[in-house]
Amino acid sequence: RQWLKNATLVLVATFFFAVVPATTQVAFAQDESPWKGGIPPPTQPRETTPLEVEDIIERSMGAVCLERSRDPLGSVPIDVMQARPSLPLAHPDAVAGLKRAERLLPAARDLVVASLRDLSSEYNIEEFRIRAATQRVLAVNRIEPDVELRDNASVILSTPRTIYFGTIFLAGLQSDEGMLSVLAHELTHIADGREDSLQPLFRLVGRRAATLTGMRIAGRRPEELTCDLMGAMATRAFIQRTPGKELLARRMARAIEHNCVEEDGTDEAHLSPRNTMRALFALDPTLGSDITGDPLVTFKLVEPPSIPAKTTPNVTPRPRRVTPIKERVSPRRRRARS
Known about the structure:
Elements: H1 2-31, H2 51-70, H3 78-82, H4 92-122, H5 127-138, E1 142-146, E2 153-155, E3 162-166, H6 167-172, H7 176-192, H8 199-213, H9 221-241, H10 248-253, H11 273-283, H12 285-292
Parallel strand pairs: 1-3
Antiparallel strand pairs: 2-3
Helix pairs in contact: 2-11, 2-12, 4-5, 4-7, 4-9, 5-7, 7-9, 8-9, 8-11, 9-11, 11-12
């Protein structure tokens, strides 16, 4: 019996030392193999935002709004624009805004194409989608003012070469950087088109922002957020192209400072203005670093967002954005687009 017990103990010990190192090696191999790109595995993302990073995001938002209050060319906050009476087409501020938008449109087209390629490369979006989106962006050649759109901007897929601007919005975006950011936003909607070419990108960006911030970003919100992100990216590239005497912090703040609202309302299609800023700072840490001057704090991507299941080019168009948006504007919407 004693011999049998000893033999049993030897077998158990041998099995234990053979199995434990193997499993331990696998565990460390997974930890030391970050995502290198390509088709990511079909898993849910597990990104985390440390408390100190949340503090940085809040401080960045405060810096944006403080910069806006000091800037002679600071954009008017969305809620302030909403409270203003309509502006006629001939109002000097609306006319000046229209001229600014028309002057910046060619640069905005080029910058959106470049930014779209950068973002799509980061998220591994198929090339055929980017080619189609690029063609649509480069075809846009007209800005049309509209009194009824008030503090909104929109695009209509039946007239894909035109961006429609409310006259209050034209007047409220007083800087080149603020105007270019909104132009880039609308051009990204046009880039998506009837074929929904950029929906995989929108979903991935929305999923990543949701895991970083803990916010619910579903429905049309991923698209709107990605358009805002493209606006910030295009503005940064514009600033690099057009150096001047103004500080980088002030110029970058102009890209998003129209979100510095007191009444932080929202709707089903958009995050609230302040939550939009939170998501943008989480997605693009360089944005906060540019504005605050703090060292760059990056977010570790533990696992990439799962790739959308639908990647074929033959996608049935959705009915959205076909009806002119001006017929669907509600007072609660911070900006009724596309």
